[in-house]
Design a protein that fits this description.
With about 475 residues, the protein is mostly helical. The protein contains 21 helices and seven strands. Helix 1 crosses helix 2 (about 30-40), helix 10 packs parallel to helix 12 and helix 14 packs across helix 15.
Length: about 475
């Protein structure tokens, strides 16, 4: 990044001229101005954020340390917040500032991608916990404190799923959450009283609005709650007893995959232990579950068909050899052997891969290859997303974005860059095929139906009707792809 390509200088010029005029009162060195110019050339997100709040540019230039206590800083910031509207504003400003700082560190090589994914996850954790705790305190002023039959205080439990659950969150991502509480009861000590179910439903709605609502200050995160029991048609918040009953009576194979990543945010050791004991028998079987391999083959068939149908060749997440295939490999071994090998019961993909190597379930060189290629693809993904704070995993078609990616990855031409990424994905795909084999033709022919069903607004009743027209019995094992393909 020592010298900006001419096309990027031209692209950044409108941003740069506006930002320079905003910074005229600041005493900045030529080196600092050069750094800012580079950042604006590589990230429209950083440029726009600094134009909106010029003091952010100075904050970025003074960012000597990558270490941040997000939770402590946000807690202090929110102490003076008096209204829900002000809460929304402070959450969004904090997110923008800290995400811009992380983008800055990535652009200037101050953070390895593995550390960056953890920091991005920690930032999300802090924002979720900060919003939840502030809203909880406000709600108890009117409705009192929720307690169980033994007068023990109850909390809203936020279960992070997907990449947030694994502390592997990408730069611009939605967040998958399940909301729960431990025990039923009533609120006490407020102006009015209600059941715990009602209290936590109110709190859950306020939390989603605080994070997901688009305001003049933007959005904190897009929140997806569809992984909860019964999806959109189920209750917003469920007690532990309701969760246990659902997974015992209605739990499906794809939910086992999803729940590998389940992680509580900002909760007590007891709550963590209770959740683990509740989910473990459903997710991890005591026997070696070889049925997972057939499910993986079915998924592979569907993915093959979907890649062709949606032309996902340039998608580094869903395309052949993409990020998703590395996740499939690790999660399949976790489901198959996790009941016998507790060390595999981890939300972290990299920790799972390490354990597969330690237990000789995969050759060391294969695990090393998967790890290296996974982190490389995550690096590319993060670059693509910090350009515009946009959730994308597709290689760019616009010339200036191709030039950005080439420059950041150290390539002279787009062809060289493309060939390198294609080589990485081909290597991952080769390992995937060795483990899973080719997808079956029956799954490939069914793929469009499954993906359309997953993305449709059907009610459970409509889904049952649609499914009954297509499948019966064993074909229901194909449900994991509905989660994996989302």
């Amino acid at each position: 990044m020592d010298r900006l390509p001419k096309e990027l200088v031209c692209h950044a010029d409108p941003y740069w001229q506006r930002l320079k005029s905003e910074l005229e009162t600041q005493e900045l060195s030529q080196e600092q101005l050069s750094q800012l110019h580079q950042a604006c050339a590589y990230s429209d997100f950083i440029a726009s954020a600094c134009i909106r709040e010029p003091e952010l540019a100075v904050v970025l230039l003074d960012s000597e340390s990558c270490q941040r206590n997000y939770q402590g800083q946000l807690q202090t910031l929110l102490q003076s917040v008096g209204t829900e509207a002000e809460l929304h504003r402070q959450l969004r400003r904090f997110r923008q500032q800290e995400l811009a700082r992380l983008a800055w560190f990535q652009l200037f090589g101050c953070l390895e991608i593995e550390d960056l994914l953890i920091r991005q996850s920690d930032l999300a954790d802090a924002l979720i916990q900060g919003a939840r705790d502030w809203l909880y305190a406000k709600l108890t002023e009117r409705w009192g404190t929720p307690v169980n039959d033994n007068s023990e205080q109850q909390s809203l439990l936020v279960i992070a799923m997907g990449k947030l659950g694994g502390r592997e969150l990408n730069f611009s991502s939605d967040i998958d959450l399940i909301l729960a509480f431990m025990e039923h009861g009533q609120t006490r000590g407020g102006e009015r009283s209600c059941s715990n179910q009602e209290f936590f439903t109110k709190l859950g709605r306020q939390l989603v609005r605080a994070l997901d609502e688009m305001t003049a200050d933007g959005q904190v995160y897009r929140v997806d709650l569809r992984l909860r029991p019964f999806g959109d048609s189920g209750p917003l918040v469920a007690s532990f007893a309701a969760l246990e009953d659902y997974y015992l009576c209605h739990g499906r194979d794809w939910e086992r995959y999803a729940l590998i990543k389940a992680r509580l945010i900002g909760s007590s050791a007891l709550e963590h232990q209770e959740l683990h004991q509740l989910l473990r028998p459903f997710v991890y079987r005591r026997y070696i579950d070889f049925s997972v391999i057939q499910a993986l083959r079915s998924m592979k068939g569907m993915i093959n068909a979907e890649i062709r149908r949606r032309d996902l060749r340039d998608n580094i997440k869903l395309g052949a050899g993409g990020i998703r295939e590395v996740e499939f490999i690790a999660q399949s071994f976790q489901l198959m052997r996790g009941g016998r090998e507790p060390a595999l019961q981890t939300q972290s993909l990299l920790s799972a891969l390490e354990q597969l190597s330690a237990d000789k379930m995969l050759p060391d060189e294969q695990v090393c290859e998967l790890r290296k290629h996974y982190l490389y693809l995550r690096q590319v993904e993060n670059y693509l997303q910090l350009f515009n704070d946009k959730q994308t995993q597709t290689l760019p078609s616009e010339s200036h974005e191709r030039l950005r990616l080439c420059s950041l990855l150290g390539f002279a031409t787009w062809q060289d860059c493309q060939q390198q990424i294609a080589g990485v994905m081909a290597s991952v795909h080769g390992v995937f095929l060795q483990i899973a084999g080719e997808g079956d033709a029956q799954s490939e022919s069914a793929a469009p139906f499954w993906f359309e069903l997953w993305n449709s607004p059907f009610t459970p009743e409509n889904c049952v009707e649609q499914l009954s027209q297509r499948i019966s019995g064993p074909r229901l094992s194909s449900w994991p792809v509905l989660w994996m393909g989302s």
